[in-house]
Design brief:
This protein is α/β, with parallel strands linked by helices and 163 residues long. 31% of the residues lie in helices and 20% in strands. It has helices at residues 22-34, 52-57, 71-81, 104-112, 140-151; strands spanning 10-16, 39-43, 60-63, 85-89, 116-122, 127-130. A 6-stranded mixed beta sheet has the order 3-2-4-1-5-6, sandwiched between helices. The two termini are 20 Å apart.
């Protein structure tokens, strides 16, 4: 493991690349190694029987991703309500190849006034890389340049799907 998980009680943790269902279980293992409570959300259907109990047990919460719900505001509200909340997500939004990251994580961090921690699952180098926390600035374009630089050259379990 390159880097250590920062001593922060609240943050948005972005994990890239997300190319395989195995990434979820690797995330659970990394969470155990860094010994931090880290939560996530998933589409509502994952939390239905027969496996819903498992996703709740591992720190997940169902979310309605319909167009009518304001997910960014809902998650920012969770940050305001809890003393400790480390929220992990895959900003690619899918396990397939993407060329741009979704920006919801960035807006959540800004609205909740919490730092972003970047985590890379680099199967090419067989390592997990963790960044220092950083707070989004007023310049989204420069912040995304920093994010892209952190993930440059990182290969997922399915390399051709890597960001």
């Amino acid at each position: 493991m390159l880097g250590t998980f920062p001593e922060v009680d609240k943050c948005v943790v972005i994990v890239v690349p997300h190319t395989h269902w195995f990434d979820f279980f690797l995330g659970l293992l990394v969470r155990k190694v860094v010994n931090k409570e880290i939560n996530y959300i998933g589409k509502k259907s994952l939390f239905n029987p027969p496996f819903g109990w498992f996703f709740r047990w591992t720190g997940g919460a169902p979310v309605d991703r319909s167009k009518n719900s304001n997910t960014v505001e809902s998650i920012a509200q969770i940050f305001r309500e809890r003393e400790i909340f480390r929220f992990a997500l895959a900003p690619e939004g899918t396990r397939k190849k993407v060329h741009t990251l979704k920006t919801g994580f960035y807006h959540i961090a800004k609205m909740a006034q919490v730092p972003i921690v970047m985590v890379a699952f680099d199967f090419g180098k067989k390592q997990v890389k963790i960044s220092e926390p950083f707070f989004p600035s007023t310049n989204m374009e420069l912040d995304f340049e920093k994010i892209h630089a952190f993930y440059k050259g990182v290969k997922g379990k399915i390399p051709e799907y890597s960001f």
